[in-house]
Design brief:
- This protein is mainly α and 65 residues long.
- It has one domain.
- Helices cover 78% and strands 0% of the residues.
- The protein has 3 helices and no strands.
- 2% of the residues are buried.
Length: 65
């Protein structure tokens, strides 16, 4: 998901579609953090969740309708 979303976003010009691909990449990062198999994988996921949610929320608010 991370690689595919990144490659598809690189060739896109529409900002709404790029945002969709960014959400796909973020979902891939979340799954990757959860699949580490260590005791700190949930901590890593939760620490990365808040900054990603804020950045995608700000991007959604600044996108012209």
């Amino acid at each position: 998901m991370v690689v595919t979303g990144g490659l598809l976003a690189a060739f896109q010009h529409h900002l709404g579609k790029i945002m969709g691909y960014a959400i796909i990449v973020e979902t891939g990062f979340s799954l990757l953090a959860l699949s580490l198999g260590s005791s700190s994988s949930l901590n890593i996921f939760l620490l990365l969740l808040v900054p990603r949610a804020i950045s995608l929320g700000l991007w959604a608010l600044t996108y012209p309708s």
